Amino acid sequence: MAKYLAQIIVMGAQVVGRAFARALQQEYAASQAAAKARGSSAQHSAAASSITGMTVQEAQQILNISTLTPEEIQKNYEHLFKVNDKSVGGSFYIQSKVVRAKERLEEELNIQTQQEKPQKTET
Question: Among positive and negative, which fits the CA dihedral 75, 76, 78, 82?
């Protein structure tokens, strides 16, 4: 009886192991396909996000920006930086978040500008 029970447990573990391995392979293949579909722009943007530790959406929320224009970024950055200055009772932590958000959005603007240059030369 114990022998049959052990065989059932071993066979069940093998079945679950194979199913798990197949699921991992499918997930990896789907991830690779999604990465190819996003193209190089997403790779540059993802790299910038990992370097700065902040996504574009998060940076836009911090600076309260809906469109990526250098003027709006600079205007909101200057205001938030001054308001959160420690000498006027602000928070150094929030001030540093404002600086990182500005850096991240400027990096995104650089990525977009670099992508537009090759497209203009092709046309």
Answer: positive
